[in-house]
Write a structure and sequence with these properties.
heterodimer, A: mainly alpha, B: mainly alpha, two-stranded antiparallel ribbon
């Protein structure tokens, strides 16, 4: 499929056309490659916010405030540092996912217009969405792995099971990234809406979805809010994997919810990208 | 907390985008005048209030910093929700950590070593942090956008205003914003019964002091920034301060040498100031904290003025 028209023309002495049709997966990878090319030169700019920030939280809260936590207050009898570490892995995944799906996406539509450039090639809007989401997932895996390596130095990593937690964290991040990407594809203001997402969605989610303390410490009426956040489901999975105590059916429920968010978000994103880029 | 706004346009996001149109109209004029004005412009100490001096290019200070404050009011009129919602962040922290987390901690050692309720310990520290964050955000990202992209100050300096007016005007606006947030937060603390002393009335003026110092220092740093990437350095200073300056736990957690370092960080002093006022542990030592902030503010304003002068008028 990929070869014959091009090669025939080349053999007949025609110049090679610039746009060469490739398979859908390969096309999405080309989008990822574009992102990677940028990232290879500019990763330093994201290093602090994606790895440094959760580590600082781990040190300040895990060690500092951990020394003040009443004995027995943490469920399961582990130290507060061990309790916090897997949850911060998920928080940083969701935060990186938000960072990767908001301004970079809006900018690719509006300021730098990267998507329009790609769209002028044979790569379709659906493949652009695929590439965008694949790239986000790769970023989350990479940053999470680096965070784990450094956290291990401070005694925050309890067992190799944390590698499974890394997968759950990435899934939770993607379950937030996909619907968010779909939404950002419809945004056209200068980014005030996006600022509000950080302020009204990401921030409260971080603070109220069971990261720093068990959910039952909050008033009853707040708890259902946490249930709809991907962060809480991801935290339950990641923490349960490392500290033990993860039951089969609840785990399946968390997984199903996250996968549904991811699939629904991706479908919606594909539709919105197509709408925006097609005309 | 931040996001990775890595792409060039990204920081545009805040409330300053609204003024792009306003600012752009001034650009051409500012740039054209600069060539002519360059030689005469920067005469230190020149106060242009006579009619003759009005005609001449601006000196350092025309006593009209308030015009920039008025402009900020006009610009933010349409995005007031964005402005007001800034108070929600410390509030979320207070509700989440003060209540949820507090139940795991119970009591911690307060300013005099006596155990105190965790929420009561945390709240004044969050107030100090929000004064810092508000001032820094206003005096760094927004100022950088106006300086580099909107070319607002080129336009401003083409009028009778000088670099000191710009510094004073912008910092004043940041302080007004800081005052707004700290008053709102103080009311919430009052409602949640987290204030133990009438000295708390002094919290708002103290917060203004703190905001002034951070805004001045932040703006001075901004004049050295080359790109948005450089702002990571500011985050690198702000976030560790927020986390480690006895905001969430008492200083006694640290070994002695580390305590000594933390004691010299500005946020620690701001936290001490606020915590002392809301709990009623007021001493002469607080004047030392105030003096500390006066020095930072003075140096900040001076550096900002000199840098703007150098960047825009020479």
């Amino acid at each position: 499929m990929t070869s014959h028209p091009t090669e025939d023309r080349a053999e007949r002495g025609h110049p090679r056309p610039t746009g060469r049709p490739v398979g859908a997966l390969r096309a999405a990878f080309l989008v990822v490659e574009g992102k990677w090319t940028w990232y290879r030169r500019n990763w330093r700019a994201t290093f602090f916010s994606s790895v440094g920030q959760p580590l600082l939280f781990l040190l300040a809260l895990g060690l500092g405030i951990g020394s003040q936590v009443k004995p027995g207050a943490v469920p399961g009898g582990v130290s507060y540092l061990e309790y916090l570490a897997p949850a911060l892995l998920v928080v940083s995944a969701v935060q990186n996912a938000t960072g990767e799906s908001t301004f970079p996406v809006l900018s690719s539509f509006k300021w730098q217009r990267v998507y329009w450039g790609i769209n002028a090639s044979p790569i379709t809007p659906h493949q652009i969405v695929g590439g965008q989401l694949l790239w986000t997932a790769a970023r989350l895996l990479l940053s999470g792995a680096v965070y784990l390596v450094v956290a291990a130095f401070f005694g925050g990593v309890r067992s190799p099971l944390v590698l499974i937690s890394l997968l759950f964290a990435t899934l939770a991040g993607m379950a937030f990234a996909a619907p968010l990407t779909a939404y950002v594809a419809t945004v056209d203001d200068e980014g005030q809406t996006l600022g509000n997402i950080f302020r009204f969605v990401l921030m409260p989610m971080t603070l109220f979805a069971g990261t720093f303390f068990p959910l039952d410490r909050l008033p009853d009426f707040v708890q259902p809010i946490a249930w709809i956040t991907p962060l809480w489901h991801g935290t339950e999975l990641a923490r349960g994997t490392v500290l033990g105590g993860l039951q089969f059916w609840p785990a399946l429920g968390h997984l199903a919810y996250l996968l549904a968010l991811l699939a629904g978000g991706a479908a919606l994103a594909a539709r919105n990208f197509r709408r925006r880029l097609a005309n | 907390m931040t996001n990775d706004d890595r792409l060039t346009g990204d920081r545009v996001a805040d409330n300053d985008v609204a003024d792009r149109g306003v600012a752009d109209r001034g650009v051409a004029k500012g740039a054209a005048d600069r060539g002519v004005a360059g030689g005469l412009a920067a005469r230190p100490g020149l106060r242009s209030n006579g009619p003759l001096l009005r005609v001449l290019p601006a000196g350092l200070y025309a006593g009209r910093g308030r015009m920039l404050v008025e402009r900020a009011f006009l610009v933010n009129r349409r995005s007031w929700l964005n402005l007001v919602s800034g108070i929600l962040e410390p509030l979320f922290f207070l509700l989440s950590l003060g209540i949820g987390f507090g139940s795991m901690v119970g009591q911690v050692a307060g300013p005099d070593g006596q155990p105190m309720d965790y929420a009561m310990f945390l709240a004044p520290a969050l107030l100090a942090s929000s004064a810092m964050n508000g001032a820094i955000n206003d005096a760094t990202y927004n100022v950088f956008f106006k300086l580099k992209y909107a070319k607002l100050y080129d336009a401003v300096l083409a009028t009778s205003l000088g670099p000191l007016d710009v510094a004073v005007g912008e910092i004043t606006w940041a302080v007004i914003r800081g005052g707004l947030y700290s008053s709102g937060f103080l009311l919430v603390m009052l409602g949640m019964d987290l204030i133990a002393s009438p000295w708390a009335l002094l919290v708002v003026p103290a917060a203004l002091f703190v905001a002034f110092a951070f805004a001045a220092a932040g703006m001075a740093c901004t004049t050295f920034m080359r790109s948005w990437q450089d702002f990571d350095l500011i985050q690198l200073a702000i976030l560790p301060m927020f986390l480690f300056c006895s905001t969430f736990y008492p200083l006694s957690v640290y070994p002695r040498p580390l305590q000594w370092i933390v004691e010299w960080l500005p946020l620690y002093r701001a936290v001490e100031l606020m915590r002392g006022l809301t709990t009623g542990h007021v001493g002469v030592g607080m004047l030392g904290h105030l003096a500390y902030f006066v020095v930072i503010a003075g140096v900040g304003v001076w550096v900002t003025t000199r840098r703007l002068d150098k960047l825009l008028l020479r």
